[in-house]
Structures are given as C-alpha cells and as structure tokens.
Amino acid sequence: MTTRNLSAVIMAFMVLAAASHAQETPKEREGLNAPKNPLLCPAEEHPELAEVHERRRRAGLVTGAKWVELEKELDALRKRGRMEGDVVTHLEGPLHELSEGVEPASLDGWCRESRRHWALLVRGLAGIDWAWKARGHGYSSTVSDQSARVFAERLSAARIDLEEAVRRDKGCVEALKGLISVAMGLGQPEDEARSIFERAVKADPTHLPAYTAMANYLLPRWFGTPEKLFGFVEKAIADHPQEPGLQLVACYAHELVEAGGAHYRTPEVLRQVLASADLVLACYLRCAEAWRRKGQACEGLNDQAGRYEAFFQAAECGDLTSMWAVAHHEVFNPHTVPESRRDIRVGLRHLCRAAHFQQAEAMMMLGQAFSRSLRGIPADFAVAVFWYRLAVSYARDEGLKNLARVSTVELVALGLAPPQHGEEVLRKLTNAHEAGYLDATAWLGKLLVEGHCVPADPARGQRLLQEAYDNDNMRATAFIGEMRCLGQVMQKEVTVGSRELSDAARKGDAHANLVLGRWARRQEDAVRHLREAWRLGDPEAAPVLRAFFEKNPMLRGPYDLDPAPAPTPR
After folding, report:
1. Section 436-462 average pLDDT
2. Within this chain, do residues 113 and 253 fall inside the same structural domain, yes or no?
C-alpha cells in the first residue's frame, strides 16, 4: 500500500465518520468536519470501505421501511451459508448489526407489516440485547431488584417473538439459538434448554452459535458445572469429527469455565487452545476467532513472533479487538513487532477500520498518533482534535471520555490546534472536573490562572490547582512546580518547584518531563526527559525532541522519532 493509498483510506474513514454521528450531543457534534491534510487525499470509494457501505445501506432499508427488499436480502444471505474460509455465516453479521443496540419498539412497524419470520427474529434478538442493557453483565449480587424485574420482562417479550419466528419458520436456527440464551437469562430448567438446543442442531447440526449458547448455559456461573460443560463440548466434537469449527467451543469453555481466567492461562490449557486453533485454521484460514485464540495462546506461551503474526491475521480477517491491538504495537511499541512486519501504514489502516466501527480506543490512539508525531506521522493537530472529539462522542467508559476531552483542550490551550470558543473549553473541562477527573481539574485551574482560552479567575484557578495537588494529581504537581520555579502567581521557590517537577516526572507526568528536558543543563538529562515526555504523549515534545536531535544526531536512538515523510505528490 502506497502512502497515497493509505492517505485515501484515512480520509475516506474520516469523511464517513463525520457523517455518521448518532450518539454525541449537539454540543459535541459542533465542528466535527473532517479537516484537510496534504497527506490525506479524499476518496469516496475504496475496497477497505465495502463492509462499511454495506452496513450503512442495510440500516437505510430499516429506517426507510423497505421491509420486502430487506427480507429478500436476508433470504439470499442465508442461502449463501458460511463465508469463504470461515466458520461464520453470511447472515450472522447482518443480524447482529440489525439487532444490537436497537430498541425493540423501533421494529414494531416491520413486525406489523410482515408475515415472514425475519421481523420477529430481529426484534427478538434486539430484545435480548435490550434486556442485558437493563441488567448489566455483572454477577447477580450486583443487580438491583428493579433491574432484575426489567431484565425478566424484556427477556419474556423476546421469547414470545422468537417462539413466533420459529413457528413461522421451523428451520430458523438463529431464533432457536436466541431461545437458549433466553432460557439461561430466565433460569429455565436445563432439560428445557437442552430441548431447544436439540431442535437447533436438528435444523443445522453444526451451527456454532447454538453450541456456544448451550455451553454458556452450562458454565458454573450459570446453571452448569465444569464436568457438564466439558462433557457437552467433548460429545459435540466427537459427534461431528468432520467439523473442526467446534474446536472453538472448547476454547470458549476453557476461557470462561473459571472466574478470573486463571484456568485459561495455564500452559497445559494454552497448548490445548493452540492445538484447537490450528485444527480450525487447517480448514478455515479466514477464521478471525481462531487466529485470535492462537494469538492469545502464543502470548501466554511467550511466543512473541507467533503472537504478533496470529493477531495480525485476525485483524486482516476483521477482528476489531485484534485491529487496535496490532495497531497499538505498530504505532506505539514498534520494538515488539518482528522487524519483517514493521509497517506504520498497516497500523494506521487497522486503527482507521476499528475507529469507523465505533471503537473509541482506536479513535483516541489516532488522535495520539497525529498529536505526538509517532513513527514519522507528520504532526497534524487539527486531525488529532478531530479524532479526540470523536472519541468523546463514542466512548462508553467515562475515564476514556474525559481523557479525550482533556487531550482536545490541551492542544487548544497550547495553541497547537484551531482555537475554540472559550465557553466550549470551559464547558469541556468543567464537565470532566465535575466527573472527578483530576487532570481536568488541574488544566482548568491553570487556564483560569493564566486567563488563556477562558476568562481569568486567578483565585479560583489556584483553588482548583491546590485541590488536584492535594489529591496527589501529578499534572497539578507539575503545573505548581513550574509556577514556583518561574514565580508565576505564587512566590518564587526554585528548590521546592524543582523537587515537585522531579516528583511528577518520576511518577510519569509528561509535562513535567518536558519542562525538565527544556531546562536541563546536561544533554543526557535533556534527552532522557524529552524522550519520556514524548513517550507519555506531551504534544509539544515531538518538535522539541526533533530539534534536539538535529543539533545532537549522535544521541538519537533506533526508535526515536522517525523522519517525517514529505507529502506525496499528486
């Protein structure tokens, strides 16, 4: 892949992402237009985006109430069976897309209009997902009585839909698989769950999701025992020796049979998982789950080359978790990648794919890559802000959401990114501060003290800095240490300030390392602190470090800031 092709992929993902915000608030959505970049050539179509366009098109059939057309497509997908070189059917992905995160009531129109089984199947699967959203995925001791009641009500409604779908199409193995999951959630007796399972495998003897659902029911955390679980798995594999895909059910059982996963990490089990994955891959070379299992086994057995190769192949086959894992190593830890495999373009491509499928971690990593000028990626702070703001929109974890907010504000506050209205900066930081994110408290205090981006309020700013400092926040310690050394706002105390900066740097604060690197008298100290500031993600570190290496080329290490490539001629 050439640099120009990679740039086309990145820009195409950015254009599509900017057009598909469904989760962010209007305030968060402001200004989320893909910025221009000389290395990012716009492209409307690209082979990498075929799956994205298909998802968007199918979603349009639902919102446009084109039920007949959608049902014809689902019929065609079922007839196609399994994907080439994979255990996954052509139908599994689209059914998941149509039902995940969808409120069942939104599908009522389709259910009223259609006499086919498809509408009830999708609404039933959506009902299962909707029920688990109400309950959460923790142990029963963490579920309130109200959540448990809503969970049971929603599962009961899903069961009615799925049973009617089976009545309309007795061979609907997808609905039967869903009914096994309902039986588990509602605590139905084992013989009822097994009866549903027998009906499913009668319709399709090697339907993997049905086997996985039954194995899930037999986990010790639900209604089974290790003996029942592995007895079921061994019988399934023995009854179908011609179907190596069932080895994946054994991997699943090994992973989840014991809370905490200690069983899965033992060398003996890892070797069994590796052998199972190899059996699957001998027949299904495009099976992402088998490659991912192989990667996990190699990692546990300390086979680093095998680990990377397996995760790389899983990512190439479309596994989202592997995409950003591979990209993380390519972009952030190249020394962990086999030399023959090192290619920053691969890392960026996988990050873009994962980001478009709403993985906020990948969005965050893209922002960091462009703000930190990693592996020769030219720093582009407008692009970095674009990805950070997308991460705010899509992150489910509040910690990641607040980190993305502060990363955005940091670039603006340092004058590296396009200016935003002061009230927007204040709103982002205040939201993160009120959520208890101390880095935001520290930044808000600093900006109020300086009157930068927000109206000056030195008294409040000092109170916020002190609040974060008293809670051992290293960013606040770094800011206060720098202010003491400079005599800014507070009394000049170089000794105390230097000690605070050193303490913050030692505990991993990027800004403290940057300041100490700039102020260091010895070159060795300067490069050590600047390297650490860059590694920890300070957006100002890359140009400072690059200028330092231009003056002192002998101090450059093998993984220090690759030379920035020139824009590709058009």
Report:
1. 87
2. no
